[in-house]
Amino acid sequence: MGLQKMTLIDYPGEVACTIFLFGCNFRCGFCHNPDLVIRKFEAGFSEEDVLKFLREREGKLDAVCISGGEPLMSLDLDFVRRIKGLGYKVKIDTNGGFPEKLKKLIDEELVDAVAMDVKASRKNYSEVAGVEVDMGKIEESIRLISDFKNYEFRTTVVGRFHDVDEVRLIGLWLGEICGKKPKKFFLQGFKSKGDLIDESFLKEEDVSEGHLNKLKNCVVGFFEEVGVRV
């Protein structure tokens, strides 16, 4: 378990820390290599270490973002209950592959915000994720999240995968599954740096803010809010 002790980015509007749980059911080539990330945090933090840190930061931090990897692969719900018991807001970053656990978090009111990474349009999902994806689970998570109070969908834009047509297909698909105009959608630009799962992506061009805004303009009518993150 990794810990970033303060962030103003991972939980918008809140002073937060971020907990990183390692391991993922996807193998997106443009993602950072999880084995190297684990070595970066080889000293590690236990749940008790994190809870001790949070008790010491009461009144200084407002929220906790639980990210990954894919956190819902291994997240202990009792750990989240203890975090909530300290009075912190909790945000989950997920790829949507574990709707059963996501539903438990929502039903027990253990989560205050959810961000779901949407990898691609339905037809291209498995190609971008690097594994065969159970699209029924992805769509179940989309529906669960769309009925939640505070959420966002977001797509990391990679040149070889995401053009205007692809992003429009994502917007149309999300609206169809939600049965309404989704609240928030963010386009994030891929950056070719670090240790990536597929080293061929190191030759991929960074996605510019101008290109993100071009894609944004193509889907702005599909969502209540569309934003870009460079």
Across the major sheet, the strand order is: 1-2-3-4-5-6-7-8
Beta-sheet strand percentage?
15-25%
CATH homology-level superfamily: Aldolase class I
Number of strands: 8
Supply the number of structural domains. Answer: 1
CATH class (first level) name: Alpha Beta
What does this structure look like?
This protein has 230 residues and is an alpha/beta fold. The protein is built from eight helices and eight strands, in the order ββααβαβαβααβαβαβ. The chain has one domain: Aldolase class I (TIM Barrel).
Architecture blueprint of SSEs:
Blueprint: E1 2-7, E2 16-20, H1 34-40, H2 47-56, E3 63-67, H3 77-85, E4 89-94, H4 99-107, E5 113-117, H5 125-129, H6 135-146, E6 151-157, H7 164-178, E7 184-189, H8 209-219, E8 225-229
Parallel strand pairs: 2-3, 3-4, 4-5, 5-6, 6-7, 7-8
Antiparallel strand pairs: 1-2
Helix pairs in contact: 7-8
